[in-house]
Amino acid sequence: MNAIRLLHLADLHIGMENYGQLDPATGLNGRVMDFLRRLSEVVDYALEHEVDLVLFAGDAYKNREPNSTYRREFARRIKRLTDAGIPVVLLVGNHDLPTQERRASSIEIFHTLGVPNVVVAGRDQLHRLTTRRGAEIQVATVPYPIRQRLLSTDEHKDKTIAELDSLVQQLVTENIHALAAQVDPALPAVFLGHFSLSEARFGSERTVMLGRDVVILKSALADPVWDYVALGHIHRHQELNNGQHPPIVYSGSLERIDFGEEHEAKGFVVADVRRGQTEWQFHPVAARRFLTIRADVRAEADPLATLLSTLARHDLTDAVVRLIVQARPEQEGLLRDADLRRALEGAYYVASISKEIERAYRQRLGGESPEGLTPDQLLARYLESKDTPPERIALLLRYAEEIFANDQ
Length: 408
Fold this sequence. Notes:
- With 408 residues, this protein is an alpha/beta fold.
- The protein has three domains: 4-284, Purple Acid Phosphatase, chain A, domain 2, CATH 3.60.21; 289-358, no CATH class; 371-408, no CATH class.
- The protein has twelve helices and 17 strands.
- The protein has helices spanning 30-48, 68-83, 109-112, 147-150, 153-156, 161-181, 205-208, 303-312, 337-343, 360-363, 375-385, 390-407, and strands at residues 4-9, 53-56, 88-91, 118-121, 125-130, 136-142, 189-194, 196-197, 215-216, 228-232, 238-239, 248-250, 267-274, 277-284, 290-296, 320-327, 349-357.
- The protein has a six-stranded mixed sheet, with helices on one face. Strands 5-6-7-10-12-11 form a six-stranded mixed sheet, covered by helices on one side. Strands 15-16-17 form a three-stranded parallel sheet, covered by helices on one side.
- It is globular and about 75 Å long.
- The N and C termini lie far apart (64 Å).
- The model has no long low-confidence stretch (mean pLDDT 88).
C-alpha cells in the first residue's frame, strides 16, 4: 500500500506575550503573532506537500480560557486544512483543560459545531479515520491524564504523593495497553499522546506547566503494534526509541518561549507511515531568535568602546536579546544603560541588560547580611541577581526545598 503522509505538531501555546510588543498591523502582541505565523507555516507546508492527516498533540493555547481572538485565529488556520480535505485530530493537552471538570475544553467548540474533518480527542479512544486520499488509519488518543478522573478521592485519600503518582502511571499504562489490544493488525496504527515520557529531556515547558506532571515509562509505548508514536507536552524535539520501530517522537514546540530554548530547533514532523514501516523527518520553522551576548570588559581601559564593538559584531535583527556584562566596580559608571540600549536598537526586543559587578550581589541583599539569610533566601537573591524570570525562580525554589530538607 502507499504510505500515509501524516504531519505531527504540538504545543502552540497561543497567547504567550513575554518579550513582546504591540503589532500595529493586527493589534495583537507581536509574540502572539510569532506563534500564529509558525502555525501558518505548518499549514502552508501541509497544503503544498499534500499531507494526508494532521495530528496535533495538544496545548493549543497558553491559558485554559483563551480570548475570542486567539480562538478565531487558531480556527482560521485549522479550517484551511479541513477545507482541503485533510483530517485533523486535535488532542486535549493540560493547557487545553478547563479549570472545572464539567466545563468545556478550549478546543471543544470544533466538536460542538460538528466541524467536518476535525476530531477533538478528549478521552482515551481508538479512532478509525479515512485520510485525504481515502486510505484508512487507526489513531489511538490519550489526552493529558487528569488525576481526579483516574483516582477516587475516598479510596486514595491516605496515599502519599509518590504513591498517587505511581498509581496514575499504572492506570495510564493499562489504558495504553487496552488501546493496543483493539488495533486491527491489517491497518496502520499511530499513537497520539500528551504527557511526559521517561528518558525524555525536558526544557522550558517546566516554567509554564499547569499542575503536577505525569510521567509514563517509555516501555509502555515501545510496542510494534504502533507504526508511529506522536507526542506533545515536552517542548524539545527528540526521538526516544533509538531508531527502533516504532519511532517515539516529540515534535517539540513551534516557537521559543524563553532563553531556556535559545539553542533548540523548533518545528514539526512529517512521517510516511505504512503497516510495520515508517520514515519520518523533522522540519524546522522560522522561530524567533533568542540571543544571549556575554562580554567581559574587566581588563579593558575603555570598556564602553570594547562593548560597543562586541555588539556590532552580532546580528540583532528580529532577535530577542539579553546582554550580560562582566565589569569591575569602577567601570560601572562608564557603562550606561542608555548607551547600551542605543547599540541594541536593531533587536526586536531587549529582554535585559545585566551587569555582573563584584559588589552587585551584596547590594541585592537589601542591606542584609548573608549570614542572616536562610539557604532558600540566598538562592532567591542569587537568581534575582542573574535576572532570572520570576516564574523560573519559583520553580527552582520548589526543587531546592527537597535538597535543603535532605541536608538538614
